[in-house]
Tc1-like transposase DDE domain-containing protein (Holospora obtusa F1), 54 residues
Amino acid sequence: MDNAAFHRSQRTKEFIESVDCQLIFLPSYSPDLNPIKKFWAHMKRWVTNQINQL
């Protein structure tokens, strides 16, 4: 889970643990775990390559 305030609440923790699951929080910022960052990096490379081929 990310670090949103409601994810850190005791109520959320109790709810998740009540169904035998474990909370695992992401690091504060991790671009490797953020698929949109990978997508935009790929898109920027593609656009740059297209421009350079002109």
